[in-house]
Amino acid sequence: MRIGELAAVTGASVRSLRYYEEQRLLTSSRSPSGQRHYTPAEIERVHFIQRLYAAGLSSRTIMELLPCVDAPSEETSDAAMERMEQERERLSAHIDDLRSTRDALDVLMAVNRAHRSTLRPGARSVRDKDGAGRLP
Questions:
Q1: Can you tell me the distance from the alpha carbon of 2 to that of 110, in angstroms, rounded to the nearest whole number?
Q2: What would the pLDDT profile of 79-108 be if each residue is shown by its tens digit?
Q3: Which pLDDT band holds residue 26 (cuts at 50, 70, 90)?
Q4: Does residue 74 sit in helix, strand or coil?
Q5: Strand pairing of 126-127 and 133-134?
Q6: CA-CA distance, 60 to 11, in Å (whole number)?
Q7: Is residue 127 classed as helix, strand or coil in its secondary structure?
Q8: How far apart are the first and last CA of the chain?
Q9: Contact, 29 vs 21, CB < 8 A?
């Protein structure tokens, strides 16, 4: 099948499929005119790549996991599991950072609410000639 057909079947864009090939995540054969041709097996591979991207993995990390798919063995399975555990730890740390950032924003919002409650009614903002709001 050609690249447009693979894109239609998988829901991936043609641009994404070209990127997957550039990153060596996907392979194709070429016709004499240079058109890409894929086997039906590439459909599942694209779905697998999409699931890995949806899990927050980079193309570099996905490349490290593919030996487990391409040459399944206890060794490649163990390596893939170890790599996924590292990624999970990285994502958990990022989530913790985001929670801290959200908590800091909550504090700023509370300070702003307290400040706004001290403003006189009608004195919250004044519009200057060009319509921009400013505090008095």
A1: 56
A2: 999 999 999 999 999 999 999 999 999 999
A3: very high
A4: helix
A5: antiparallel
A6: 22
A7: strand
A8: 67
A9: no
